[in-house]
Write a structure and sequence with these properties.
With 57 residues, the protein is of the alpha+beta class. The protein has 1 helix and 3 strands, in the order αβββ. Helix content is 21%, strand content 25%. The chain starts with 13 loop residues before the first helix and ends with a strand.
């Protein structure tokens, strides 16, 4: 008989995910990264700006 699958006891919030994304994306882009509670702003030298938003569903 198989054991029931247990749910993970670790809970992530939006800010945890944003900081993880910031850490990994820095290896792929030359830009300035500004992390806040639930979004990551990416500013490129050519003036382009992007916001990556994270929210729990």
């Amino acid at each position: 008989m198989e054991k029931p699958i247990e749910k993970p006891s670790i809970v992530c919030n939006e800010q945890d995910i944003v900081f993880d994304i910031k850490y990994f994306i820095q290896d792929f882009y030359f830009a300035k990264f500004i992390a806040s509670e639930n979004h990551l702003q990416v500013n490129f030298d050519n003036g382009q700006k992007f916001i990556i938003s994270v929210r729990e569903l």
